[in-house]
Design brief:
binds iron/sulfur cluster, 2 domains, globular, two-stranded antiparallel ribbon, TIM Barrel, alpha/beta, eight-stranded parallel beta barrel, single chain, 18 helices, 10 strands
Length: about 450
């Protein structure tokens, strides 16, 4: 009798990119996600999970995608009006401190090369960038307009960021001439709101040529593979108004991106897909399912989404509502939105509030997905609350600094209680009556494994 053939190793449908760079190895990455190394490798091989870590970095790779915890990104970076390296580094620190899993440096003002180098050097988390900004800024330094740059100069911008060590790059390769024609017929309220998308479309219209990052996509992939970076396929045609959500232009670009995901996998490059933008609550589930179907389960990285257009000043809340629902329906990665969205460059405090809002949204989805680490985090805080153990409860919260500030601002005259109820504290009253607070019940019946929150 012939020996039974050994099961083949999980293989990617198209190439399979299982990066080995970074510190700790895949076993550590899997342990942090509370999944088995075998499951992580299987999802990596199929492209349903990516791990972010350039070959030039010495950080622990970050897993994003199917069966992983929902991740949060914070955008920082200078603008032509406000450029201060120390300020951007302070934003980086506060973003990481309150739970950002990645940071994107979107600098477009001042010495962007200096800012990017400093951010990469200091960041313990993966860094992403949008290299087309580099091309525009380099063109300006040469005294010319972005629309006069060559395809070669755009690819040079990509290589510059990759060689500097960024872990993922947003490239708007899904904007094709055909998709721009569909956009022209879409009759949008808010047109194009993607900075990189608008630059690319302007270049295409002025030069009457195909998008260079689409035309030379194979060159982009070759560079990403060389440096071990992931491509994040940007949604340059994302809707910027509720009225424009899920229109033909957005869907056409997504279908093109689906093809680009397959080409990335075939080239051995990890690919994520970026998503909108402005999406009403009733369209969020459809958007996530469409991406998962059209892009063969590639990790979905959403900006927000914002569920209404009227939240200016509070768009971290608008985005967190959309982010929680999107993540519940299968989105993998939430790009934060700050209170300054649509109004100005975020301050350090805006960054803190934006990350906290998205972190809560991501964690709420992790709890609903019965992710063991997430459930255990909630249980730990619940137990501390039931025991009126203020120190442990505050330490376990998503933003201990803010919780401590509120709690310390006014102390109750009643021992153990807070100023909300004072002597009528329900928890204290029941404990004093000898009724033990209920302990140990886990939402959904999951088995906690002792995750220590995001810190
Ligand atoms: S005083 Fe009221 S709000 Fe404060 S811990 Fe007791 S029951 Fe909760």
């Amino acid at each position: 009798m012939k020996a039974k053939a050994k099961s083949p190793e999980p293989k990617a449908r198209a190439g399979g990119a299982i990066p080995r760079q970074g510190t700790g190895g895949l076993a550590s990455v899997a342990a942090r996600e509370h999944v088995s190394p075998a499951l992580l490798e299987k999802h990596l091989a199929s492209g349903k999970v990516v791990v972010l870590c350039s070959k030039r970095r010495s950080i622990m790779p970050l897993a994003v995608g199917k069966d992983m915890t929902v991740k949060v990104n914070a955008n920082i970076g200078t603008s032509p009006d406000t450029s201060d390296l120390a300020n951007e580094l302070a934003k980086l620190r506060v973003a990481v401190a309150v739970g950002a899993d990645t940071v994107m440096d979107l600098s477009v003002g001042g010495d962007v090369d200096e800012v990017r180098a400093a951010v990469i050097a200091e960041s313990p988390v993966p860094i992403g960038t949008v290299p087309v900004y580099q091309t525009a800024l380099d063109a300006r330094r040469k005294g010319k307009s972005f629309v006069d740059t060559s395809a070669r100069e755009m690819l040079t911008g990509v290589e510059k960021h990759l060689s500097d060590g960024v872990d993922f790059i947003t490239v708007h390769c899904g904007i094709t001439r055909q998709n721009v024609e569909i956009l022209a017929r879409a009759g949008r309220v808010c047109g194009v709101v993607s900075r990189g998308g608008s630059m690319t479309i302007e270049w295409m219209r002025r030069n009457r040529k195909e998008n260079p990052l689409y035309e030379y996509y194979d060159d982009v992939l070759a560079m990403a593979r060389e440096y071990g970076a992931a491509v994040s396929l940007g949604d340059g045609l994302r809707p910027g108004a509720i009225a424009d959500a899920t229109d033909a232009a957005q869907v056409a670009e997504l279908l093109t991106i689906g093809e680009l995901v397959q080409r990335a996998r075939a080239a051995g490059v990890q690919a994520m897909v970026e998503g909108p933008g402005h999406v009403p609550l009733d369209q969020i589930e459809a958007n996530v399912k469409l991406e998962k179907s059209a892009c063969d389960g590639a990790p979905f990285y959403l900006l927000g989404p914002l569920v209404t257009d009227v939240g200016c000043g509070y768009d971290h809340i608008t985005g967190a509502i959309g982010g929680a629902l999107a993540a519940w329906h299968g989105a993998d990665f939430l790009c934060y939105v700050t209170p300054s969205e649509h109004l100005g460059l975020p301050t350090i405090e805006d960054v803190r509030q934006g990350v906290v809002a998205s972190r809560i949204a991501a964690h709420a989805a992790d709890v609903a997905r019965h992710h063991p680490g997430a459930i255990d985090w909630d249980l730990r805080v619940s137990r501390a609350r039931a025991a009126l153990d203020w120190k442990a409860m505050i330490a376990g919260c998503v933003d201990p600094q803010r919780a401590e500030t509120i709690f310390s601002a006014a102390r109750s005259r009643t021992e153990g209680a807070c100023t909300m109820c004072g002597e009528f504290c329900a928890i204290r009253r029941m404990t004093a009556d000898g009724e033990e607070p209920k302990r140990g019940r886990r939402p959904g019946g999951g088995k906690g494994t002792g995750r220590k929150g995001h810190k």
